[in-house]
Amino acid sequence: MPGEAALASARESAGRIGKRFGVVKISPAELDRIGRETTRTLYCFDVLTNTLTAIADQTSSDVGYQDGFFVSLDPNTSTISQSELENGLVFNESAQRNDTPDKWVKMLARPKDICLFGSESTSIYYNAANPGFVFIPNPSVSIPYGTAAPESPALLGGWPIWLANDLTVRYAPGYSATRVSTFAMEWQIAAYSTVLDAEGSLTYS
Questions:
Q1: How far apart are CA 19 and CA 29, in angstroms?
Q2: Which of 2, 106, 130, 169 is deepest in the core (most CB within 10 A)?
């Protein structure tokens, strides 16, 4: 049974969302109580019924909300799945990365598109209003940098910023991946025994 703290956090966040379904962030301690950190099970909290439900057959490291759809990423298979419109309980459409061999390891949802970070490159998907799976790659955007740390991508001013696979910090306003780290910062990053555990936040300093 999910922990009461997890349910309380979900209820509070869902109340702020003001919709029946919405993306809710729960603290790592509470995630551990409901087992998501080890199983990567996707859960949906229904405000009207006051229930937290595990979504069958959905393994997810990230979930976002875009144009009325929930979108989840399974990094093991490099697959993004899409829910029914305004229904976070049913995921019935999916797409797998096929443009490059590196798998997607992180997803960020922006107001008009979805950023999918691989280990060597990054894809940008947008809602093309197609039948079935509505999201397709943006043919006008090519980002030749992936991420060395799956938890490092964050949004700064609405645009992605992340620790890239060349161990620089990249910021992509307009999707031009500009190097914003200094040589001193990059020297320090390169000195770490691992950067896999690096995490991004709303700002980088």
A1: 25
A2: 106
